[in-house]
Each structure stands twice: as structure tokens, then as C-alpha cells.
Amino acid sequence: MKPVAMSRTFFEKxxxxxxxxxxxxxxxxxxxxxxxxxxxxxxxxxxxxIFTSEHLSVQVHPDDVYAAKHENGRGKTEMWHVLxxxxxxxxxxxxxxxxxxQRLRETSLSGEIESxxxxxxxxxxxxxxxxxxxxxxxxxxxxxxxxxxxxxxxYRLYDYGRPRELHLDKxxxxxxxxxxxxxxxxxPLAPGEERLAECQYFAVDALTVGSSKTYQPDPTRWQALIVxxxxxxLGDTNVKAGDGFYLPAGTEPFPMESGAGMRVLRTYxx
Length: 270
What we know:
Layout: E1 4-5, E2 7-17, E3 31-37, E4 45-51, E5 58-60, H1 64-70, E6 78-85, E7 90-95, H2 101-110, H3 113-116, E8 117-121, E9 127-130, E10 136-138, E11 142-149, E12 155-158, H4 168-174, E13 187-190, E14 193-198, E15 203-209, E16 213-215, E17 223-234, E18 237-240, E19 244-247, E20 254-257, E21 262-268
Antiparallel strand pairs: 1-19, 2-3, 3-4, 4-11, 5-12, 6-9, 6-11, 7-8, 7-10, 13-14, 14-15, 15-21, 16-20, 17-18, 17-19, 17-20, 17-21
């Protein structure tokens, strides 16, 4: 078997942007998310690129236990890897101080919660891990690659006056009030490979591709490869930033190379 090109679905968002270069062309639309997909059975993970020109809502996701009991679904743990960041761009992960659930409700209704968020300045190459229960928000002026459980259960606490429903009762149930560590430093795996994030749901690695080398897929499990920077070749296919590939279990080894350098994210279920 060989790598299979993944489909891409573009979603317009009020907080999106027409500036998708160098990954895509927008046609003037304010694109906020680009989802990667496969034919047939959906993957247990959702992989997407997120493009922002405004802040996203302040939100929180439940864990598997709460989601199964109250939503007949699964929870949502996720990670963000920053690909582009305008000056002053930041991501919010957790709160700057411990507060009571009642104050969390009050500050969500008043908008004060925005000032209580732990806003972390970010630059390209930074990674933030967001376990279920972490109050979070993506700021304006960033592009991130997000890997998450295949779930759309989101509880909004604050949405900057946009006319969308809030979910304060459920958010109070699931929100963690513990401090968040912020930027997650990468861990070296092998020459040209780093571990960006790992948990029971997914592992995400960054691969730096230069001169030709043979890529050895794990024969026992599927993997997904997302080209996030540069261009080159994957097998006998020319690839560039914004392309994604699905590697079924049993995919044969294939060459990867890039003359000017290429960065690829790899994700799979451990």
C-alpha cells in the first residue's frame, strides 16, 4: 500500500481570514478551518488547520465520562501547533488564578473572564496541549494545526458579544480550575524528529525533511502526515504545505525529500 492523499474541506467563519498563504488560496472568503478527511470509515482523530483574524470563543470541552453520560458522545482533548503568529498573537490556556464555579459563571456573563485567561504569547513552532476540561481560546492572528479527538462537543463560556448560545451550566460541570503549564517543549525522538504532544488519544511528532531518506511507516497502525512548511516529494508525489496524506496500516516504506527543507507533522493513535 501507498500513502493516500487526504481530502480537504474549507469552512468559512466570522473570525476567519482570506490570507491562507502559503497553504491555500481562499478566493476572497474568510476561511477559519480546513479539515482533513479520508474515504470510508472516519478516523478517531480530527486534524485541521485553523486561521484566525479575530478571537475565537472562550470554551471548554468535556472528558469521555461526562460526554458519554450527558451527550451520548465522546470527550475532546486537543493540541495546537503554531504555524504562523502575527506580532502580539497569543493563545489562552487555563486561568491565571483559582476561582469558584460561581465566579466563573459571573465573569463569563460579564466578559471579565477574558482578563482572567492565561494568555500565552506564541510564535511559529510552539505547541500547546489542551486536555479536556481546560478553559481555552485561540487568539487573533494565528494559524495552528489542531489535532483532537473526533468530537464536536463544545461548551461556550464567552463569545465577545456574538449572538451564539452559551452553555454555562455544563461548562461549570466540566471546567478544571487548575493551572495550565502553557507552551509544551518538544522532546527529541531521533535525528530530525521531535515529539510535540502525546496522550492516550493521540501522539503528534514533527519531522524535518531534507535530503532523500526512506520513511518507515509503522506496519501495525495507521498514520497521518500533514505538510505544514515547505515543499518536496513524498514517494512519487510532489507535495507542498497544506497537503495531507493517510498511511493505512501496512503502508510500504517510501522516500521523502526536500531540496529547500520541509516540515511534516505526523499523528496517530498510540
